[in-house]
Amino acid sequence: MTDFTGRTAVITGGAGGIGGATAIVLGKRGARVLLVDRDAGALETAARRIGEAIGDPGRVHVFAADVTDEEQVKAYVSYAERELGGINAFYNNAGIEGAVATITEYPTEVFDQVMAVNVRGVFLGLKHVLPGMIARGSGSIVNTGSIAAAVGLSGSAAYGAAKHAVIGLTKMAVADLKDSGVRVNAVLPGMIDTRMLRALATEIFGDEEVGMQGLGASVPIGRVGSPFEVAEVVAFLLSDAASYVTGAGYNVEGGTLATLYNGG
Q1: Strand pairing class (32-37; 8-12)
Q2: Is the CATH number of domain 8-190+225-257 3.40.50.10350?
């Protein structure tokens, strides 16, 4: 029930760590994969790596697009519908971290950038991917939230607000999709070894490796997670194995939220 043979999966933020890992997991299970990212060079590099990993470069496609630009979102959706047989699975994943600063010190222009990518981008993805799925009477979407969607984290005003909004959009989509055959869920990653986490570790601790070790030590499981550990949950939610799961937010965070305010 987690076989994606003959299906098309679109992944925004496809050149990143979690997006790329998800592409490999879905590709190894038979999916045609369309990677969407605004960095064309990074996309091509990711496509080569993913094609080699799944053993079939012909099933990996790329489309350079800015998820905050509605016309560009329409363009990647149109490409997938026209050239790849329609979108069966959509990982609405693109996001940026923004600054580390208190609300009183947070740069307004950075706040606007984070909200544009992390909220507007998710909204536009839903808006333009859903019509094709609804017309076919099937499809599954996963949005990327964060542990910052569940609690208040100091210094993360824009990122936390945006990820709370992603969970809200997930629930609103489910409310709009009654009897459509389309499911929408979210994942809430915690400390996952990505470029984003390494950048935050460096900014907070002043040293990348010291920061990564410190962040890993704060997790009850005792380490930072792998992008593939998130990808496996995303693949489950996109698959028929999760046929009765919609409107859910799946924590992939090594127990962080269970202990955050309990000495963890």
Answers
A1: parallel
A2: no
State how far the Cα of 93 lies from the Cα of 141, in Å rounded to an integer: 10
CB-hemisphere CA count at 13 Å for 18? 32
Could you tell me the end-to-end alpha-carbon distance of the chain, in angstroms, rounded to an integer? 36
**Helices (DSSP H) in the chain: which residue ranges?**
17-28, 40-54, 70-83, 108-115, 121-136, 157-176, 195-205, 208-217, 227-238, 256-259
Would the pTM of this model clear 0.90, i.e. be above it? yes
- Give the whole-angstrom CA distance, residue 147 versus residue 152: 9
Determine which one of 106, 159, 244, 261 is catalytic. Answer: 159
How far is the CA of 224 from the CAs of 16, 122, 143, 252, 255, in angstroms?
A: 17, 26, 21, 11, 11
Of 13, 66, 56, 67, residue with least CA distance to 31: 56
- Kind of pairing between the strands at 60-64 and 182-189: unpaired
Comparing CA positions, the residue from 26, 264, 42 lying closest to residue 147 is 264
Quick one: pLDDT band at residue 261, thresholds 50, 70, 90? low
What SS3 state is found at 220?
Answer: coil
- Coil, helix or strand for 157? helix
Residue 216: name the closest of 229, 203, 226 by CA.
226
Q: Of 154, 46, 162, whose CA–CA distance to 96 is shortest?
A: 162
pLDDT digits (tens, 9 = 90+) for 92-117: 999 999 998 999 999 999 999 999 99
Cα–Cα distance for residue pair 14/36, rounded to 1 Å: 5
In whole angstroms, give the CA distance from residue 130 to residue 138.
10
- Contact between 59 and 31 under an 8 Å Cβ cutoff? The reply is yes
* 159 in active site: yes
